[in-house]
Model the fold of this input.
Amino acid sequence: MNKSRRERLNAALVKLQQVEQSIDRIKDEEQDCMDNMPENLQSSDRYRAMENAVDHLEDAIESIQEAAGYVDLAINER
Done:
């Protein structure tokens, strides 16, 4: 891989990391809302939807980390 493509992939890798951080912050906010929800609402549909959203965001973060790993492998392939 030439230098130009490596540089473009490095830029893409930075963007992936920024997206991961953004999603992680939102996930943490949603988790905080869940943690502060009154006990009597923790069996509600709203709570379950929040719980599902947190799970999906965790899956998204893992997928981004996996993608970033593959990009890193491509950058460092010699």
